[in-house]
Amino acid sequence: MARRPLPRILSNGSAQLARSRELARTAADSATDVLHPLITITRGLRRLASAGRRRWADTPKDKRGALLFLVASLILVVALVPYGPLLAGITLMAAAAWQGRDRTPQAPEGPDPSQVQRLKSLYEALVPCFSAADDPEPLYLHGGPWESAFPEYEFDGTGRISHLVIAYPAYFPDGEPEARARIEHLLAAKSGRCREYHFDWDEEGNRLTVRVLDPLPTDVAAQRFVTAPGETVLGLTDPSRVRRTLPLAHGAEQRDVPPVVWRTGIRSTEPHLLAAGQPGSGTSTLLRSIALQALRHGDVMIIDGGGTGEYACLTGRDGVLAVECGPAGARTSLEWAARETERRLIAANRAHEAGDPPPEDTRRPLWLLLDRPSTFTHLAAADGEPDPQSLLQVPLRHGRPANVTVVVAEQLDCLHHLGDAVRQHTRARVVLGPATAEQLAAALGAPPPTSTVDEVPPGRGYARLGTGPVLRLQVPATPNPYDDATAESHRQAVLELLPPRSVPADAEPEPRGAGAADHEPPGSAPTVVGEELKISMEKPSPHESRPPVVTAAQAPEAAGEDDTSAGKVPAEAVAAEAGIAEPS
């Protein structure tokens, strides 16, 4: 049975409707132009009638009779005077046209004197940067016309520049970062400090567009973000820089904000992250936010070099393997993490060789969060022990195929104390707090496209994922809920995200072998003492709060196992067996 063709209105009706709307819009505009005098007179008559009603309502009742007599007398005189009705009608129409005129104040054409003076000052400041002695037709010269140099400009309510397009000569080296930085610093100083400016260089058209950026919201609290497994929200950014938005709850209302999403896992190109900042800039807040998101789908191990108890709220929680604050516990946890990475690599490689899917325990993400690891470096050097950061080489180098993610937070002035493996393999970078353009370029690998300010709120900074663009960042408010200075709303938001406790926070530590340190806090990972304690390579169950250990009493039984289960697999053998090429 042959199909009947669609009606013409359904096949090409969209084009006809578009033409019809265009014709209707043109006819309406033409009618408005033709009937504009009639519309003005009608508006004026309505205003005169409203004024008459108000005058009648304001007149006392005992005087309304006299007012009616006066109006009737005027009408009688106008009717008896030759050409009186005609003159009265002309007068009424003139009055209605005057009352019905458009009273909207017109915007002034061009800038006012104060704005002109500001543009002239900016033009004179740019003359030494954009002029050359051998230019036959200079665009910038002292006392020259600024109108040709600034084709577009806008001012805000305070009289300062909010949008500016600058034309510059073609011989200006706009491809050199030093030349750009000099111009950007000058524009930020002359246009008004304490504001962030975005600079867009059009090298092909020799145009520089400067616009003021709106401040990022600082009142967004920690919450469950609508993300897929393997996605971590680092914070919020400008809507013009990303194409994705997330629905966030802000009190009783909900709004969509653009996030900075960091993707981890096997297919991630930036599997590890390095966060730097000044004290009080919010790096610990960022690590707490990442930990709360990671606990939804994986296990977390935290090593706190600050020793201020910023992560005490996570001790004994489901999925939290350990929260270490001492050097011995930190070394033990890092040794276990390195051997757990090796075990995962071997198990996954054997499953691939057999044509089976990877084991379930190798697919569960493992997060290593380190806050100020350089502190343990100094302590280890003072005790004559090796640097604990050397134990991060295996998780950093082979963590992506093993579903192991490393996040390191360090102070901006201590980045040189980090090991080469940390600096080389942490390709996702975050810098929080006040920093100079040189510090940002050194930490992120590229200068930011915005101007820097001296005073920023906590959690405010920049982020760059691999070779992507540098984005402004505002970390969600994730404070320590045990801090007395924390706002109650933010405290409750963090407490609601914490998983339930698997081990009470005040539980007694498990019995240890002879010579174990008695000063370690309860719930911490076991410490290796001499050769008696050996870390097991078995994957901890989700109900365990610390990496499992094999004590001295169990050593004879463990000696009968193979090297793989005992955790004595060198990194070179693991890399060779897992088929991972070592970087040259």
Question: Could you characterize the architecture of this molecule?
Answer:
This protein is of the alpha/beta class. Helix content is about 35%, strand content about 15%. The strands form 5 sheets. Strands 11-10-12-13-9-14-15-16 form an 8-stranded mixed β-sheet, sandwiched between helices. A hairpin with a 5-residue loop joins strand 1 and strand 2. The chain is elongated, with a radius of gyration of 36 Å. The relative contact order is 0.10.
Q: What descriptive keywords fit this protein?
A:
584 residues, four-stranded antiparallel β-sheet, alpha/beta, 18 helices, disordered C terminus, 18 strands
The biggest beta sheet reads: 8 strands, mixed
Number of helices: 18
Q: Give the radius of gyration.
A: 36 Å
Helicity, as a percent range: 25-40%
Number of strands: 18
Estimate the strand proportion.
15-25%
Overall body shape: elongated
Distance between the termini: 70 Å
The assigned structural class equals alpha/beta
> Which sequence of strands runs across the widest sheet?
11-10-12-13-9-14-15-16
Low-pLDDT ranges: 509-584
Mean pLDDT: 81
